[in-house]
């Protein structure tokens, strides 16, 4: 009888020790049952996801306000932006829940591989929104902030190569960089394009041909502004915000017609008139031949003729 009780005591002790071990070491890798918590011990992943969700919601609201403020009938590309922006906001909200402890998702995801897959869907919805908003001429500065957060999120998850893919996808989808380029609009108007954000440009009209050539010289681009012309669809150009007019003149400077013939007259622009120089030696008095600007005959003819400089 005593032997039986001794054996029973040993069995009870063994079961107690096993239960204690199971309570101390949960299933998994023996460190933590929450894979996302193991990955995001510093809380950076959740903070980034929360920031992205907030900006995505703000952009959806801003895009809606921009479209409503424009008035008129809703166009197809505008409707597409509304749906795409709300879709990205919803995706960002879901991704945030996937990173939050106790959401019901984290315990069923395998850390990096699970978040990698979730990131793919999030990134896909962002790409769709950026492309759709660009076609509709919606201001995209807020989306550039989202792009930065997406890069940081990807790096935080573990660098599966998505950062390079993300940047490459953006380069493939973005149009030619139009910043600082000229574009011909309707009625022979010429505009300078100024980049304000990703896909967000302002068009500034030149007052006349003289303003265009003077601006081009001021940018150290030489005598041919037509080498800096961008091909922009008329519909896209019309949607860009119109900035202040560019008005520049050659007042106080010398100009000459761009021809390869000898004895072309040189004019000094003074007092709103063109004054011909009677002798080549006079060019040195006003700065030398390096300060003589070649311009089309139309620009010269816009100035009334003044007294000859002798």
List keywords for this structure.
alpha/beta, 310 residues, 8 strands, elongated, Four Helix Bundle (Hemerythrin (Met), subunit A)
Note the topology.
Layout: H1 2-24, H2 35-39, H3 44-70, H4 76-99, H5 111-136, H6 141-157, H7 162-173, E1 182-184, E2 190-197, E3 200-205, H8 209-218, H9 234-239, E4 241-242, E5 254-256, E6 266-270, E7 273-276, E8 292-294, H10 297-301
Parallel strand pairs: 3-4, 5-8
Antiparallel strand pairs: 1-2, 2-3, 5-6, 6-7
Helix pairs in contact: 3-4, 3-6, 4-5, 5-6, 5-7
> What is the rounded distance between the termini?
138 Å
Uncertain runs are: 1-33, 160-174
Enter the CATH topology name of the largest domain: Four Helix Bundle (Hemerythrin (Met), subunit A)
Helix/strand order, N-terminal first: HHHHHHHEEEHHEEEEEH
Summarize the structure in short.
50% of the residues lie in helices and 11% in strands. The chain is of the alpha/beta class and 310 residues long. The protein folds into three domains: 35-173, Four Helix Bundle (Hemerythrin (Met), subunit A), CATH 1.20.120; 182-242, no CATH class; 254-301, no CATH class.
């Amino acid at each position: 009888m005593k032997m039986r009780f001794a054996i029973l005591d040993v069995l009870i002790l063994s079961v107690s020790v096993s239960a204690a071990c199971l309570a101390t070491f949960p299933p998994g890798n023996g460190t933590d049952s929450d894979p996302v918590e193991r990955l995001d011990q510093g809380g950076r992943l959740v903070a980034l996801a929360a920031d992205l969700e907030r900006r995505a919601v703000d952009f959806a609201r801003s895009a809606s306000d921009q479209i409503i403020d424009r008035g008129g009938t809703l166009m197809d590309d505008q409707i597409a932006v509304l749906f795409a922006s709300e879709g990205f906001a919803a995706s960002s909200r879901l991704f945030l829940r996937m990173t939050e402890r106790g959401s019901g998702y984290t315990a069923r995801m395998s850390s990096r591989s699970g978040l990698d897959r979730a990131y793919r869907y999030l990134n896909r919805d962002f790409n769709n929104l950026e492309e759709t908003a660009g076609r509709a001429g919606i201001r995209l500065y807020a989306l550039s902030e989202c792009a930065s957060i997406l890069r940081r999120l990807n790096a935080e998850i573990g660098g599966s190569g998505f950062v390079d893919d993300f940047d490459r996808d953006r380069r493939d989808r973005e149009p030619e960089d139009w910043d600082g380029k000229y574009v011909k609009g309707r009625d022979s108007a010429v505009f300078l394009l100024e980049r304000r954000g990703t896909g967000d440009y302002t068009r500034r009209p030149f007052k006349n041909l003289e303003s265009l050539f003077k601006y081009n010289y001021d940018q150290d681009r030489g005598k041919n502004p037509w080498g800096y012309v961008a091909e922009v669809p008329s519909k896209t150009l019309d949607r860009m915000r119109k900035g202040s007019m560019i008005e520049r003149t050659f007042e106080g400077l010398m100009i000459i017609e761009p021809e390869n013939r000898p004895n072309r007259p040189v004019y000094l622009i003074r007092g709103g008139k063109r004054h011909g120089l009677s002798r080549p030696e006079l060019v040195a008095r006003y700065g030398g031949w390096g300060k003589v600007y070649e311009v089309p005959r139309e620009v010269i003819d816009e100035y009334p003729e003044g007294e000859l400089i002798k």
